[in-house]
């Protein structure tokens, strides 16, 4: 309860600093990497920071200095003034107290906006001050993140739709700093050869560390910025892929807790989409060693959409990768988590849709044994999702080509559903699938039915013999007790 009160207070204080209807005249970049792995839920109403209603009184010059706008000074003085403005923005404010350093925060905010406007408009050549600019950005965004919610409460994951999710109180300043960094990276005035000395491997690693932030707005900016760095700084590409790999390994095999897995996978979705053919061996190893094991953590629901997109991209580019993907899905198939089973069945359908006959035949027996277990699941959503696989024309064609192997594997599960499944919807869908298979090959269906009836008869005989054996043993034991009984007067 105390944690919720604190979060609401932080949310309220963050809301006081911005308004999405602000008329300050600045347009912020839409921070979304657009590709098919992302649902159409972009944050089009990104809050904007309010201009002050009243002019603040002059601040203490010993703390922060009020500087004139760049356009109001002579051209010869602008480089020095630009540098002073960067140094002013290195002043770090305490956002834990809303009423502390109010005037200093406002002056810094206005200065950040001016820097953003200068870089966006291209009215000033800032290439000589890249080192100071990146240093200012680093001082503001690279910080110790607050303790995660799962460390202070019983919950392990935070619902992104929850009203009590964490909102960073320093976001009114952080947002502008992230915009400055983004504009700096995409600006045509940014010289790659010079800039890569400051936006180096250490900078990229620190940026990746910030994906642990619980504030979803910050992760959206980080996603876009890292994607732009990957696109512009070709020298960093192998390092970025390796660093993301290491984050995944730690998440899978050590912590199983990370707030930014979905965003990192979304970046990778765009990267994988651009892989050249034939694919390099390191990319295939990344699929097998990182993406497939990402199906193991129980928090998969928070990033499954992005993960599924990445996996499908690999299989579409190289059909031979369907075999290790299906094998991995069967390896990490959930035993007791029904929600996770539904996700796996949905992904399996997408994989099978781009799978060719040769790869399908390698795994069809073990695959349909697992599908049969799902058909008999007492959880009706799992059974329904498994039956919906027969609505896919490509899967039906694969089944039809290999019906002599698949039908005997799946027949018993269908018969059990017809006899004993409690859900009417599952019962009806099973009847439809059963009829489809019967029309596909009536002779094979009849043969499977006869084999099933013979197996049922053998099972009944075996059960009767077992019951008869137990009755004989009980009779012998009862007789032995009576013979050994001692009468006491």
From TrEMBL:
Pfam families per record: B56
Gene3D superfamilies with a match to the protein in the record: Leucine-rich Repeat Variant (1.25.10.10)
Signal peptide extent: none
Source organism superkingdom: Eukaryota
An example Gene Ontology CC term for this record: cytoplasm
GO molecular function, one term: protein phosphatase regulator activity
SUPFAM superfamilies according to UniProt: ARM repeat (SSF48371)
Keywords: Cytoplasm
Gene Ontology BP terms: signal transduction
InterPro entries reported in the protein's UniProt record: ARM-like (IPR011989), ARM-type_fold (IPR016024), PP2A_B56 (IPR002554)
UniProt family annotation: Belongs to the phosphatase 2A regulatory subunit B56 family.
Function: The B regulatory subunit might modulate substrate selectivity and catalytic activity, and also might direct the localization of the catalytic enzyme to a particular subcellular compartment.
Protein name, as recorded: Serine/threonine protein phosphatase 2A regulatory subunit
Organism the protein comes from: Lupinus albus
Organism ancestry: Eukaryota, Viridiplantae, Streptophyta, Embryophyta, Tracheophyta
């Amino acid at each position: 309860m105390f944690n919720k009160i604190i979060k609401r207070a932080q949310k309220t204080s963050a809301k006081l600093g911005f308004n999405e209807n602000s008329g300050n005249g600045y347009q912020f970049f839409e921070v979304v990497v657009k590709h098919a792995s992302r649902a159409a839920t972009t944050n089009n109403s990104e809050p904007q920071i309010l201009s002050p209603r009243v002019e603040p009184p002059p601040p203490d010059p010993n703390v922060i200095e009020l500087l004139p706008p760049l356009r109001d000074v002579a051209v010869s003085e602008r480089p020095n003034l630009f540098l002073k403005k960067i140094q002013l923005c290195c002043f770090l404010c305490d956002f834990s107290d809303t009423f502390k350093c109010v005037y200093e925060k406002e002056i810094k905010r206005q200065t950040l906006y001016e820097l953003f406007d200068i870089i966006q408009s291209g009215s000033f050549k800032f290439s000589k001050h890249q080192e100071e600019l990146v240093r200012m950005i680093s001082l503001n965004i690279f910080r110790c993140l607050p303790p995660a919610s799962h460390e202070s409460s019983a919950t392990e994951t935070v619902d992104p739709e929850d009203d009590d999710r964490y909102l960073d109180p320093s976001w009114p300043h952080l947002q502008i700093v992230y915009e400055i960094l983004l504009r700096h990276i995409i600006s045509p005035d940014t010289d790659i050869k010079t800039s890569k000395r400051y936006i180096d491997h250490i900078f990229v690693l620190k940026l990746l560390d910030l994906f642990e932030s619980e504030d979803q707005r910050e992760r959206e900016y980080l996603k876009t910025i890292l994607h732009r760095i990957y696109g512009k700084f070709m020298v960093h590409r192998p390092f970025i892929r390796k660093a993301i790999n290491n984050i995944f390994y730690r998440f899978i095999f050590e912590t199983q807790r990370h707030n930014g897995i979905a965003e990192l996978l979304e970046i990778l979705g765009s990267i994988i989409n651009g892989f050249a053919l034939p694919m390099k061996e390191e990319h295939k190893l990344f699929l097998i060693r990182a993406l497939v094991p990402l199906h193991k953590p129980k928090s998969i629901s928070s990033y499954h959409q992005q993960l599924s997109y990445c996996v499908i991209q690999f299989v579409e580019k190289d059909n031979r990768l369907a075999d290790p993907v299906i094998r991995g899905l069967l390896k990490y198939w959930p035993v007791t988590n029904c929600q996770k089973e539904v996700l796996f069945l949905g992904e399996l359908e997408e994989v099978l849709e781009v799978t060719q006959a040769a790869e399908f035949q390698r795994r069809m027996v073990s695959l349909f044994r697992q599908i049969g277990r799902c058909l008999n699941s007492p959880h009706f959503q799992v059974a329904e999702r498994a039956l919906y696989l027969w609505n896919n024309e490509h899967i039906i064609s694969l089944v039809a080509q290999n019906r002599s192997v698949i039908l005997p594997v799946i027949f018993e599960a269908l018969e059990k559903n017809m006899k004993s499944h409690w859900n009417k919807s599952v019962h009806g869908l099973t009847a439809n699938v059963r009829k489809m298979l019967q029309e596909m090959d009536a002779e094979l269906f009849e043969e499977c039915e006869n084999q099933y009836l013979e197996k049922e008869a053998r099972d009944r005989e075996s059960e009767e013999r077992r019951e008869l054996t137990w009755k004989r043993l009980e009779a012998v034991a009862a007789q032995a007790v009576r013979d050994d009984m001692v009468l006491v007067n």
